[in-house]
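Deviation from plan, reported transparently: 2-acetamido-2-deoxy-beta-D-glucopyranose complex.
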Amino acid sequence: MVLRVVSAILRSPYRLQRIQGHMMSSHVGSEVLLETVGNAGVITLNRPKALNALNISMIRCMFPQLKKWEKDSETDIVIIKGAGGKAFCAGGDIRAVTEAGKSGDSLAKDFFREEYILNNAIGTFQKPYVALIDGITMGGGVGLSVHGHFRVATEKTLFAMPETAIGLFPDVGGGYFLPRLQGKLGLFLALTGFRLKGRDVQRAGVATHFVESQKLGALQKELVDLRSPSMSDVTKLLDSYQEQSTLDIEKPFVLQQHIEAINRLFQADSVEQIVENLKNDGSPFAQKQAETLAKMSPTSLKLTFRQLQAGATMSLQEVLVMEYRLSQACMRGHDFYEGVRAVLVDKDQSPKWKPSTLAGVSEQSVEESFASLEERDLRL
Ligand SMILES: *[C@@H]1O[C@H](CO)[C@@H](O)[C@H](O)[C@H]1NC(C)=O
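Because the crystal trials were delayed, the predicted structure below was used instead.
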């Protein structure tokens, strides 16, 4: 009897093993689950009540394991997903970061540094990395997915880079992937924080595939069952799931009718010129975008404009070094704290930006935000 069980286990294609949760934590639940299932490394972001928001403990769990899986000959593929059904990851835990910034805690430096190092590890990962972005995927959640080889969106995916609304900028490598989207789409998404849903996340080029949410369980099982899959084996499997997913297939891309206007109006040498273009255009769409930009941090808008302009011709690594400088400039400034207060703490949704107008943001202050931090620069 015992022998039969043992041999059944030995015959089993699965090696199912919980590696570690948060080993140093005294909490019962682990905020990130790291498991091997067959020859797959599976990461589950597991803070469902916080929409799987990424905090530094999670980064510190994930990074070493990812590096181990990259070298380990028994690991062929990595899959990352979110627990709870609502979110993949709604972003970084930036409230904690601004609190640290106020009290002079090192988290304000360490969080961005370690987060960007993780983003780079994903962007350079040597094996297939598949992010199942089922649900809210914003900011830091985008950084955990978009640089990997495969991003699978579902009808529940809600994508945005909403940082200009909180006095930050679209970081986690936003300066790399956004200017590489079609035309001026990335700059539009970066400045306005426009939200893309479902299939449109793929149509914009943020996701590589669209698969209906209910099929993800079966998809994950087949991914795990692949033996030493090449990138093209994974592509084939994802393509076949996509072909079976017909939901919303007839719906046109939400920005289809505006893409010409976006390319024309966001083609400019400055944020001021974009705002001017939008106001002069007179269409309801342009009007609405002008109203959106008027609510954003003027400093964030100018930093973001220049970040994407510079990032268009940089490597991911160069972009992350630049973004680390910008993150620290935001920590030294005013608007990031005010944005987090207005949107996440007091929730009055009426931040008082300083400076309050685009004209008030000097070229020099923008320039200084991009300056080298010398020995405190990010090293990859
Ligand atoms: C990260 O989140 C988990 C789960 O909510 C929590 O137990 C842990 O203390 C957090 N870590 C930090 C550094 O905030």
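Residues 1-17, 20-28 have pLDDT under 50 and may be disordered. We consider this an acceptable substitute for the interim report.
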